Write a sequence for this structure.
């Protein structure tokens, strides 16, 4: 298939580790259940924290993927990312590809934060000679992409994108460029995050980004709702297998959708606050639409960044209105269900979009009850909404003013 | 502490840090070839020995240490020096 003359990049495998599900089926049903994964944090004692809840992944076992020795020398962020990538590769089937032509592009906000915190405590208590020799390879932001290649022998281009909450979307976008440029035949792309740590939680809270609804965590993440008061930290990973449409068709692989357009830019306005009126986001969505060669009117769903912070949601809603008009496409955000997966968000959300296309439904925005009167966008909430097959746009905006938008297209009609 | 007691303590460090079965941690075992311990793992292992035996092993003294027996020699030397 082509979109305005350019063939999209095909998605032939997906893997997800999320607070609402550790495989595609449970992830989708979790998104549609309307129940948030938020609850009291179990990974550490929160008694001296003002915020005590998050969307954790409780029942994940890396032992199903790698042995204990390997697991001990990888941070949790790489456990989650590697597992998602292995699932995506299994989903993609036999790639029949030269490993030198396989690239890996990872994305993360902060990398191996719990490893860094643990080692700093060792340093403070016992001195320089008790710092682990594995600190650097465990904490480095590129560890997940490196390990995916290492375990599979993929010797093509390999790098990581570090653009805060936009990293997962940027990784998929950069992977799309690699394929378009003919620099790889297959790219494993996505993002991973595991920053629900004592200092991570304290830091996000201190900047005023987090919801403080600790008496009611289940209803704390409420994107675009008039009573939203901040985001809820989440953890997880999403990885996709991307290849050219021709290659995927040629090997008879099931195609779950395509990446048709990619926009990325910078607000250059403030290190954390979005630009006034969502100007950066407007331009980013326009860049993605231009790259795909499709009109705003052809978009059937906006998979919003929708963090549930007062500032992001206001700016994004205004940007959506500017790009799509006052009667634009339905908008929804997974973050009411999953919390904010930071550097994994864009990849996990792209997967959510492809699952939505497969189901012919848009997932609802969990905990969205009443819209902000100032934000006149059509937020899907309460129940999934049936929609006709159409392209979607998935937005990710990161601290630092990083914006990334992906235009995603449905698989060919069966 | 006699040599067999020290070997037993060293074996428990190897089991914990290098994730190997205690039975393979013989005096003849080579770290790289037999215990799959690369240079980083070896540093982590020595750190565990330092904690276990309350000794200090400067990095330069690790030169030439390739087997469990050689590591045990080093531990015994440190223990007798500290006694």
């Amino acid at each position: 298939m082509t979109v305005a003359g350019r063939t999209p990049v095909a998605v032939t495998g997906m893997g997800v580790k999320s607070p609402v599900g550790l495989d595609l089926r449970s992830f989708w049903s979790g998104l549609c259940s309307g129940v948030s994964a938020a609850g009291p944090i179990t990974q550490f004692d929160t008694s001296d924290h003002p915020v005590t809840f998050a969307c954790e992944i409780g029942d994940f076992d890396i032992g199903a993927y790698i042995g204990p020795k390997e697991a001990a020398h990888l941070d949790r962020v790489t456990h989650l990312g590697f597992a998602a990538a292995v699932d995506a590769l299994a989903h993609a089937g036999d790639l029949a590809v030269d490993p030198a032509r396989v690239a890996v592009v990872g994305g993360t906000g902060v990398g191996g934060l719990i490893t860094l915190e643990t080692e700093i405590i060792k340093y403070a208590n016992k001195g320089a000679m008790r710092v682990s020799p594995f600190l650097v390879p465990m904490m480095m932001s590129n560890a997940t992409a490196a390990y995916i290649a290492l375990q599979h022998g993929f010797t093509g281009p390999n790098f990581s994108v570090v653009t805060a909450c936009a990293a997962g979307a940027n990784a998929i976008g950069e992977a799309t460029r690699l394929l378009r440029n003919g620099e790889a035949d297959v790219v494993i792309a996505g993002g991973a995050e595991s920053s629900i740590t004592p200092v991570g939680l304290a830091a996000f809270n201190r900047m005023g980004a987090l919801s403080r609804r600790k008496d009611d965590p289940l209803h704390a993440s409420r994107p675009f709702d008039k009573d939203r008061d901040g985001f809820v930290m989440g953890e997880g990973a999403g990885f996709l297998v991307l290849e050219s449409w021709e290659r995927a068709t040629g090997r008879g692989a099931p195609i779950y959708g395509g990446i048709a357009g990619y926009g990325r830019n910078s607000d250059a306005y403030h290190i954390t606050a979005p630009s006034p009126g969502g100007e950066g986001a407007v331009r980013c969505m326009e860049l993605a639409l231009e790259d795909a060669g499709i009109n705003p009117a052809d978009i059937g769903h906006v998979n919003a960044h929708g963090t549930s912070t007062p500032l992001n949601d206001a700016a994004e809603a205004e940007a959506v209105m500017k790009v799509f008009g006052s009667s634009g496409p339905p908008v929804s955000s997974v973050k009411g269900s999953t919390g904010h997966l930071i550097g994994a968000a864009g990849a996990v959300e792209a997967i959510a979009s492809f699952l939505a296309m497969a189901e012919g439904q848009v997932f609802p925005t969990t905990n969205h009850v009443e819209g902000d009167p100032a934000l006149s966008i059509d937020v899907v909430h309460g129940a999934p909404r049936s929609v006709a097959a159409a392209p979607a746009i998935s937005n990710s905006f990161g601290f630092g003013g990083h914006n990334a938008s992906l235009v995603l297209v449905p698989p060919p009609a069966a | 502490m006699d040599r067999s007691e020290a070997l037993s303590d060293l074996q428990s460090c190897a089991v914990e840090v290098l994730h190997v079965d205690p039975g393979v941690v013989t005096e003849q075992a080579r770290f790289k070839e037999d215990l799959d311990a690369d240079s980083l793992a070896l540093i982590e292992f020595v750190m565990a020995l330092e904690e276990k035996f309350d000794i200090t092993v400067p990095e330069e003294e690790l030169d030439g240490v390739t087997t469990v027996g050689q590591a045990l020699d080093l531990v015994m030397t440190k223990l007798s020096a500290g006694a």
